[in-house]
Amino acid sequence: MKKIIIIIIGIVLIGAGIYFGRDFLPKLTSSQGELHVESQPETTVFVNDENKEKTPITQKIDPGQYEVKLVPDDQAAISTWQQSVTVNPGTQTFIKALLGDTSTTSSWEVIILEKLSGNETELSVSSATDASELYINGNFKGTSPLSFQDIAEGEHEIRLTAPGFAEKKIKVNVTQGYKLTVRTQLALVDESQMTQEQEGEKPAQAEDDGALGTLLITSPTTGWLRVRSEPTTSGEEVGRIDDGEKVTYFTDKDGWYEVEYEEGKKGWISGDYAEKVEETNSSQNSTNNNE
């Protein structure tokens, strides 16, 4: 009887370890990584177009970059979801999507862990929703994207808000020696914001779209330039721009420019491979990067 009790306790402890591993740092001993995906409603998960069954799923996977797509049973009523994500060795990449009838009424979060060379800590937060205001443990930090070096270890609450969108709260665990990257999108709840833009009425803030000017891509060696999720070479690649193409930029920071590389999509490029060709009427700069 005592042996049975010990076995049961052991199973419970293993289950707890898996749960906390999923939310924070997974207990992986191999060079593989782990991908966890959950959604509401239930969806079919495709990784690089390969069917991985219904959510939720947790699978060991080789480190690398993957295209993850979530397809609901009723595609006429519920929007699909698709993003490029990175899985790093010995860590878990966590995806959670709450799908609405359109991509703008859906919210999601992608959490990626990356081992650093030293014992420092780093937290990076970006939102696909424009003008998302970031709070950490209740304290206002600014407009995303933002990065923080040497943030205290332990649990932190991230909160993002934007006019017309449902606020989003995410609890994360910062671990020494790791960079924690949080990418997210808020769900649109006030359709009037979208209607105003479609009718050409800018919502009360600025008279322009915030563009600072135009850049000419000059990357003749490769013929293209990487677009990154953050203004650093360690930022995830989210797209590419061909050499000779012109793009609008909205912010410049530490030699990086935030640009619109596809309609409605922004990322960061290195200023080493871009030249200013035109200035526009605009306001202040913000903070972002990518190469």
UniProtKB/TrEMBL annotation:
One of its GO terms (molecular function) is protein serine/threonine kinase activity. It holds the Pfam family SH3_3. Residues 212-278 form the SH3b domain. Signal peptide: none annotated. The chain crosses the membrane at residues 5-21. SMART domains: SH3b. Keywords: Kinase, Membrane, Serine/threonine-protein kinase, Transferase, Transmembrane, Transmembrane helix. PROSITE patterns: SH3B. This is Serine/threonine protein kinase.
